[in-house]
Sequence to fold (362 residues):
Amino acid sequence: MKGLRGIFIVVLAAALVLGSVGTVFAKGPPSTPPGKENAGSHGKQGFFGNVTAVNDGNVSIATKQGIVTITLSDSAKYKIVRVMNKWGDLTEFKNDLGNLSALVGDKVVFLAGNVTGTLDLLSFMVLPAPGTQPLFAHQTGKVYEFNAPSGNSTGNITIVDVHGVHHTFIVGNDTIYRPMGIGPGNITGNVTLTNASFVTVVTTGNPDVQAPPLAKAIVLHANGPEDWPKSKP
Amino acid sequence: MRKLAIVLIPLLVMLMLGTVACAGKEATPTPSPVPTLTSTSSTALFLKVTSPQNQSTVSTASITVSGSTIPGAVVSVSVDSNVVVADVDQNGNFQAVVTLAEGPNFIEIDASDPLGNQVSTNVSVVYAP
Fold:
């Protein structure tokens, strides 16, 4: 009986060891060759990385494919997300940047394509630094006043937040009106938000850009929190 | 008993070695969305984006942004100046379909709870048709 137990334990041990060895040597699916993992179907390729050097309009970027050097050309389009949340040409890009060497250390994303036999830059985006303010903000509160847009005239909405502070936003014809749990729709003159309706306004995060800020979306809650409102701090 | 110990001791040693080897062979972590701002007094509100993966390249213009947050949260997904309010189910899972432009796209995802706390994150993807 003891001998049988011994054999059993030895077999079990062998199985466990083989299993461990198998795990150690197991590898995932074969990796795609470097430089090919982000390729589009027409030779266009996306890159993500950090700018390491700028030299006479040539920008070197440390990517997972290695150091990639591209030339900033007039034919490409450019965007700095925090500075101009729109695409512009090289002149606008340089003006907004001030100095091309300011790019060093920035996180960038770009699309390049094999247009002329070399890797040509098509579009180039500078990402916001980690920890910077988001582009959009949410403001939640009860409706104090609402005037729907009419014709070409914008409307406005004023809400009172949990601390009793009033916030006013412009309401445009393209402001999204979205009751919670129901499909999206655009606000119209027929929409009525009654006083004390509980809403969240999605707006641009930078109040300096436009005052009052534009309501990109108004989300109507079914009901507010039970402990609403709290006392003003 | 002594024979049993002779068999068991090497077995335990081999098991420990196997565990250590496995621990050192963990998969390379996948890139995760980069949190940009968290300004909340509530510990309950969270925002996790599961798709698309940060720093990925897609071949279709229309993609679904999905993830999870707390039930009852408002989630907005923005690309450029376009904002989409996401569908959030009773479990806090959300999704929104957004349209990308060719090239780099910066997608910001914001979530807020009824008390006005907000968390934000973002993902960068390249649309290469």
Remarks:
- The longest helix of chain B spans residues 2-23.
